[in-house]
Specification:
Helix content: 40-55%
Shape: globular
Structural class: alpha/beta
Strand order of the largest sheet: 7-6-5-11-12
Largest sheet: 5 strands, parallel
Radius of gyration: 29 Å
Length: 548
RNA sequence: GCGCCUGUAGCUCAGUCGGAUAGAGCAACUGCCUUCUAAGCAGUGGGUCAGGGGUUCGAAUCCCUUCAGGCGCGCCA
């Protein structure tokens, strides 16, 4: 059932009443089942316009609805709600469509081939991924899957900050450890990276190259050490992402923005357009002209570029690729950066709405209620990999995807581990595995499983069965809402609820019995549930196991 | 000081472009495995939606304000 189908019915009816400028018809799913399957507040909204009591308007709208075949009843309730209850025939025919079309029935082509790029994770290749990156990753992956299911063409991009001060510092940290490892006295940089992985890389270089660089200055060895270290770390990041179930289509290197001249071109363009000026020996971008609170330096007094400069080039590159929509997923600590990047978008001649920045709030890591210190430089942090190993990838993802991205999250390792056996993700996956097992059993009993889509679904009359069918039909509405709001977590809650309808049904009613037609109908229902669970889990980037 | 986010059951969180009696999981307690998977089911208890004021037929939701927590306000990245 699509929202707009019902909205259309009401709009048509309202037009018969002579309403011309109809406000958008809101359709909602009532939380209480006694208020029908879907509900409209149109009469309440119209009351102000028509200067008539809402209940009266509601009744008139209901009277004007011509084709009521999809509904068992349409009631006016409360202050003027119009509550629709689906007819059994309609339910059966819709479920039949679901079984025949599968995922196609669940997806709607909202995007119509529009090109979207989602940039996420983009952690600096100066150390392993931590839990916060995991949250961004899980969110970005699910959003990408969601938009793809909605007919968008999605590109997933990871922006690799392989240029600039941080990677240089990384190289220097490794170089210092290398020297120290070979017994040389070499000062460790004040701000250097102190994690154990730096040691590992230094030792590896000792193994492979011995004392080749012992007498070298850092300046002469910089390219080697920096390059070696960041490539090593980037490979580790890629491995972590793979094991977490996250994939990227493109890896945009910051360094290439310089070597391919994109940075120079960007500066030239901004200069031509008159958005640059010189002051105090530095070059500034007039961000205030586009609503930012201050202008920003793009070339420092010492002639070096800032991080912002490559980011200008990076976003200019994105704009040139002609995506219909750009989405950046950032950690919430970067929120102050939004006005300035929007300023860039506008300065380059695009509406700032072209780029949506989705902020993912911080993850506070706890162990047994106590905060775990997270400092990459000091080398004190729990990596994403450790968390995956400890609590599992799907469980970790589920914890992220049962929350709105903009809520701060306390992730307690002890609680997560203790709850991993109780984690709701298993509840959903278990329903899927269970249905699979029912089918195996049915086959053993010699039931012709392949004829399931032709089963007489009208035989399903138990309240639990009706409830499940109705829930299944609401999926497209949930999907639509999740897509337009860019909120994958709505799918998470939906599949939990669906599983929550299935388990009690399974417990109360036997699926496979002597009654062959009824068995077929119930198997068909199970199949439908399974299809929707699989679709939901796939969007969220989680496994739909055949058995558990 | 200014800006952004958050505050809902003991805990972790949904619900927030205004809708009907505020929901789920965990934790607690009582039951259910010789029959398709007990990672399950049935049931019980649990709320000043941070506080105050306002807007209206109607507010957890919108506006104002106070309090509490997080984050940001670099010629760092």
């Amino acid at each position: 059932m699509r929202k707009k189908v019902v909205a259309k019915i009401i709009e048509d009816a309202a037009k018969l009443l002579g309403v011309e400028a109809l406000p958008p018809v809101e359709i909602e799913i009532p939380r209480n089942e006694q208020f029908g399957d879907i509900s409209a507040t149109a009469a309440l909204t119209l009351a102000g316009i028509l200067k008539k009591p809402p209940r009266k308007i509601a009744e008139e709208i209901v009277d004007s609805i011509r084709d009521k075949s999809q509904f068992e009843k349409i009631e006016v309730a409360g202050p003027g709600f119009i509550n629709f209850t689906f007819s059994k025939e309609y339910l059966a025919s819709e479920i039949r469509q679901l079984l025949k079309q599968g995922k196609k029935f669940l997806r709607e082509d909202i995007g119509q081939g529009k090109k979207v790029q989602i940039e996420f994770v983009s952690a600096n290749p100066t150390g392993p991924l931590h839990l916060g990156h995991g949250r961004g990753g899980a969110t970005g992956e699910a959003l990408a899957n969601l938009l793809m299911a909605a007919g968008y063409r999605v590109e997933r991009e990871y922006y690799v900050n392989d240029a600039g001060r941080q990677v240089k510092l990384l190289g220097l940290s490794v170089f210092a450890r290398y020297q120290q490892h070979l017994g040389a006295e070499y000062p460790f940089p004040e701000e250097g990276y102190r994690g154990g992985y730096i040691e590992d890389i230094a030792q590896e270089i000792v193994r492979l190259h011995g004392k080749d660089f012992l007498q070298a200055s850092f300046t002469s060895a910089e390219d080697f050490f920096t390059g070696y270290a960041y490539e090593k770390i980037l490979q580790g990041i890629k491995d972590d992402l793979r094991d977490f179930g996250i994939s990227f289509d493109t890896w945009q290197s910051e360094r290439e923005l310089f070597t391919e001249g994109v940075v120079a071109k960007s500066i030239a363009e901004l200069n031509e357009k008159g958005f640059l000026y010189e002051q105090d020996g530095a070059i500034w971008f007039k961000a205030t002209a586009f609503g930012d609170e201050k202008d920003r330096v793009i070339i420092k007094q010492d002639g070096e570029y800032t991080y912002f400069t490559s980011d200008i080039a990076y976003h200019r590159g994105k704009l040139e690729k002609r995506f219909d929509e750009l989405i950046d997923i950032w950690g919430a600590d970067h929120h102050g950066y939004i006005p300035r990047i929007h300023a860039v978008i506008e300065a380059l001649g695009h509406p700032k709405e072209k780029l949506k920045v989705l902020l993912v709030q911080m993850v506070t890591l706890l162990r047994g209620g106590k905060p775990v210190q997270m400092s990459k430089r000091a080398g004190e942090f729990v990596t994403l990999r450790e968390v995956i190993d400890e609590v599992g990838a799907d469980t970790t993802k589920f914890i992220f995807l049962t929350r709105r991205p903009d809520s701060q999250l306390e992730f307690d390792l002890e609680v997560a581990k203790a709850q991993s056996a109780e984690n709701p993700v298993f509840y959903v996956q278990y329903a899927h595995a269970r249905i699979n097992s029912i089918f195996l059993h049915a086959r053993d009993q010699g039931i012709a499983v392949e004829n399931i889509p032709d089963a007489k679904l009208e035989l399903l009359s138990q309240p639990e069965e009706i409830r499940i069918m109705k829930k299944l039909l609401l999926y497209p509405m949930v999907f639509e809402g999740a897509v337009s709001a860019h909120e994958p977590h709505r799918i998470t809650f939906y599949i939990q609820e669906l599983a929550g309808f299935f388990h009690p049904y399974y417990n109360k009613h036997r699926i496979v019995t002597e009654d062959i037609p009824l068995t077929a109908a119930r198997l068909a229902l199970c199949d439908a549930v399974s299809i929707v669970l699989r679709e939901g889990l796939e969007i969220l980037g989680m496994k739909a196991p055949e058995k558990m």
